[in-house]
Amino acid sequence: MKTSRISGFYRKPVEERKELILDMMELNGGERSAFFPTEPLELEIADHMVENVVGTFPLPLGVGLNFLINDKEYAVPMAIEEASVIASASHIAKIVRDAGGFKASSGERLMIGQIQVVGCPDFEEAKAAVLNEKSELIEICNDAYPSLIQRGGGVRDLDVRILNEHEDSDYSKMLIVHIYADTCDAMGANMINTMAEAAAPRVELLTKGKVYLRILSNYAVKSLARATCIIPPSLLKTGDFDGEAVRDGVIHAYEFAASDPFRAVTHNKGIMNGIDPVVIATGNDWRAVEAGAHAYAARSGQYSSMSVWSKDEAGNLVGELELPMSIGTVGGATRVHPMAQMALKMLDIKSASELAQVIVSVGLAQNLGALKALATDGIQKGHMALHARSVAVAAGATGELIEIIAEKMIETKEIRSGKAKELVEEYTL
Ligand SMILES: CC(C)(COP(=O)([O-])OP(=O)([O-])OC[C@H]1O[C@@H](n2cnc3c(N)ncnc32)[C@H](O)[C@@H]1OP(=O)([O-])[O-])[C@@H](O)C(=O)NCCC(=O)NCCSC(=O)C[C@@](C)(O)CC(=O)[O-]
Ligand SMILES: NC(=O)C1=CN([C@@H]2O[C@H](COP(=O)(O)OP(=O)(O)OC[C@H]3O[C@@H](n4cnc5c(N)ncnc54)[C@H](OP(=O)(O)O)[C@@H]3O)[C@@H](O)[C@H]2O)C=CC1
């Protein structure tokens, strides 16, 4: 892929933007014409995806530009309804690339399946029995998904926890078997569920209890991805704010989120502003990613900031984000939704690990975009200016009137629907 650094992309008409992306991807004739389909999701395909289909629900698809991650260029597809998010991600990616780009990594990618057993006559004995038969249980799981083994994946380990052992209620006492499976490039929910269901009868026999739930855990702590960036203050200068002031404002903002759940929820919403659009565009399950990310933010016992911002010895701003990433590049909707296929192609992604690394990098960029704005001019200046067009459309503006009314509202600093309606009436009289 050619460079994803395209200055002034947003000032060009949509058709020209598409051409620039196709050029960036270095696609040839046939591939080019098929790339941006006129009907993003045909009703017939939608009807096979979910139930009771009566239509489809399109979202704007934008491209996060300027991303350099582990020295590779990425044009990042982002499906989102909120203004200023894509601009902000591109803005920070531009700064970070001048500082050497994001460094991202991920370790093992194991998804977790849970089997709940209740009513064991002796929970400690039941635990020992399961652990004794670990290899056999792993084999049962793997036999339930032979194609995964052929790909080099499969269950790697299994362990057992006893919950509420000393409580009086038989409802609350339980034994939980965890299976840890490498699901290769799939998110793996269906795979894990298949394996957990296959192992359950044997678990019942071993524990002399009764199995109820057999399901994936979305707390994917064995599938973590992390991103970091190191930015010299000289790259952070914004208007009248020097780089050191911006850096310090970002660190103060982080400390606020680290200490106060009221702020942490909003701070983390800002991170998910970047993460969700990529997860959605690539056809992944954003509820799974959201649930895992917020739970991980509470792993210390108090809900806190997902990211960490600090200053290194040289005075650089250092950002870090580590999150569970239960995503895939195959399976689920990724192979069914034509736009998800397009998004993965645009990213030129080779594996689920690589996609996870891109996603956390975008989350980190998005977080800095919001904190930089909040710690300097305030969020309204950049965000509301871009939101103004949406307000104008909601008030009934069409065609050229959208830009005229948006600009008028920005000029008078009155970006609200009442004002937009007044202006629509004024201009259409
Ligand atoms: C909006 C900016 C980026 C302007 O910031 P700016 O400094 O005016 O940008 P610039 O004109 O210097 O442009 C720099 C680059 O940004 C990009 N860029 C710049 N403008 C556009 C545009 N119109 N469309 C697309 N891309 C744009 C573009 O890549 C451009 O490079 P160039 O192309 O010029 O070489 C900045 O004000 C900003 O980042 N604001 C924050 C916006 C934000 O965070 N929005 C999220 C919604 S608010 C929220 O939900 C979360 C929150 C805030 O509550 C979270 C929290 O509290 O932590
Ligand atoms: N709690 C949760 O989050 C839950 C989520 N879900 C949903 O489950 C779906 C994800 O489940 P998942 O199991 O990933 O999807 P699938 O059931 O689609 O399984 C993945 C498929 O990808 C195929 N595949 C092709 N190439 C590869 C490769 N390189 N690596 C791995 N698999 C490959 C496998 O084919 P083959 O058959 O040849 O092996 C397999 O059929 C999502 O839609 C999610 O919304 C469902 C239940 C619960």
UniProtKB/TrEMBL annotation:
<dbReference type="InterPro" id="IPR023076">
    <property type="entry name" value="HMG_CoA_Rdtase_CS"/>
</dbReference>
<dbReference type="InterPro" id="IPR002202">
    <property type="entry name" value="HMG_CoA_Rdtase"/>
</dbReference>
<comment type="similarity">
    <text>Belongs to the HMG-CoA reductase family.</text>
</comment>
<dbReference type="GO" id="GO:0140643">
    <property type="term" value="F:hydroxymethylglutaryl-CoA reductase (NADH) activity"/>
</dbReference>
<dbReference type="InterPro" id="IPR009029">
    <property type="entry name" value="HMG_CoA_Rdtase_sub-bd_dom_sf"/>
</dbReference>
<protein>
    <recommendedName>
        <fullName>3-hydroxy-3-methylglutaryl coenzyme A reductase</fullName>
        <ecNumber>1.1.1.88</ecNumber>
    </recommendedName>
</protein>
<keyword id="KW-0520">NAD</keyword>
<dbReference type="InterPro" id="IPR004553">
    <property type="entry name" value="HMG_CoA_Rdtase_bac-typ"/>
</dbReference>
<keyword id="KW-0560">Oxidoreductase</keyword>
<comment type="pathway">
    <text>Metabolic intermediate metabolism; (R)-mevalonate degradation; (S)-3-hydroxy-3-methylglutaryl-CoA from (R)-mevalonate: step 1/1.</text>
</comment>
<dbReference type="Pfam" id="PF00368">
    <property type="entry name" value="HMG-CoA_red"/>
</dbReference>
<dbReference type="InterPro" id="IPR023074">
    <property type="entry name" value="HMG_CoA_Rdtase_cat_sf"/>
</dbReference>
<dbReference type="InterPro" id="IPR009023">
    <property type="entry name" value="HMG_CoA_Rdtase_NAD(P)-bd_sf"/>
</dbReference>
